[in-house]
Amino acid sequence: MKIESNVISSLPRLYTTNRDTNSTKLETGPALPGHDKIEISEAAKRLAAGEGARELAVGEIKHNFSVRPIFTSEIDSSLNQLLNGKPPEVEEAVNFLISQNFIPDGSVSDEGERAALLESGLAQAKYIADNYMTEGEADEFLSTMNRIAAYAQTRTVDPKTGQASYIELHRRPEGAPEDYIDIDYLMKKYDPEASRKITEALKDIHNGGSGTSITEIMMDFSRKMAQNPQWIKEYRAETENVDKVLKNTKIENRFEEANTSNMASFLKDMDNQIQNTSFENKDFLTRNMEYFALILEKKI
User: To the nearest whole number, what is the mean pLDDT of the chain?
Assistant: First the structure.
């Protein structure tokens, strides 16, 4: 068994707080982009100033989807390789459907709507695969997107706090051995006090201090690990379970037969199927589809 020794460099990602644009709820899971960079068109500015009363058209508020959420190293590496060399609008569309369809923020609280958005996102992924990728690329891309969708379906909400969370993803750094152990995760789970002390030591280093306590903390935790071999066994079981969930989850998709031959056909077919759903207000799906099309057609 090999344990990652470069602990200090890997620790910060353990303590990164995931942001939720809806402050009333907290989403925990992958590192989610906050979409802070928003371009507002003149029409949107006029509406905000009270010079109009209509609903904003799709595309008048332009979000930045240049950043993709972080998942497992395998998923991230696959997407990076598949999207390398593709037109920038393709990568933006992929980032859009991941963050808006698969793992939308807390503003989408209805589980039925979240499910419909996820299924629509899988249809959008198939459109990208069929129109922008080779056959081999398409197979890998859809497999990767299915794993992200499977991750999205692990979302649970605490009825008392309203806090939403997802299954814990264990990241193995690229090039790390198969038996890699995430010390950061083990410390956070089994010795939170040591984890807190490491955080304080890192802050001390950031502020110009020596951070000398880190070595002592890590040596003490190593001794605790040796005394508790079940920690490693439980970690292995967790990682195996996560892998099974991501690779074996089957998702029923009401939009899977949508015509992806070209954008016009895709939009028409999807709209027909959306109109046949039971949602009283279908705008959340139609506007999502319109935004997806605008990105790929470079009109936004």
Answer: 82
| C-beta separation of 270 from 289 below 8 A | yes
How many CA atoms lie within 13 Å of 291's alpha carbon, on the beta-carbon side? 28
Rounded Cα distance, 85 and 47, in Å: 38
Cα 249-251-256 angle, rounded to 5 deg: 145
Residue 12 DSSP label: G
164 token code pair: 């939403």
Strand order in the sheet with 156-157: 27-28, 164-165, 156-157
Euclidean distance between CA atoms 71 and 271, whole angstroms: 31
- Tell me whether residue 207 is in a domain: no
- For the question of whether the overall pTM of this predicted structure is more than 0.90, the answer is no
Helices first, then strands: H and E counts in the chain: 12, 5
Provide the domain count of the chain.
Answer: 1
Residue 50 and residue 211: Cα distance in Å, rounded? 54
Q: What phi and psi, each to the nearest 5 degrees, are found at residue 174?
A: -60, 130
The rounded distance, in Å, linking the Cα atoms of 300 and 293 is 9
Contacts of 108 (CB under 8 A, 6+ apart): 114, 117, 284
Torsion, Cα 169 172 174 179, to 10 degrees, reads: -150
- Provide the residue range defining the domain that includes 272: 7-33+68-169+246-296
pLDDT tens for 241-250 read 999 999 999 9
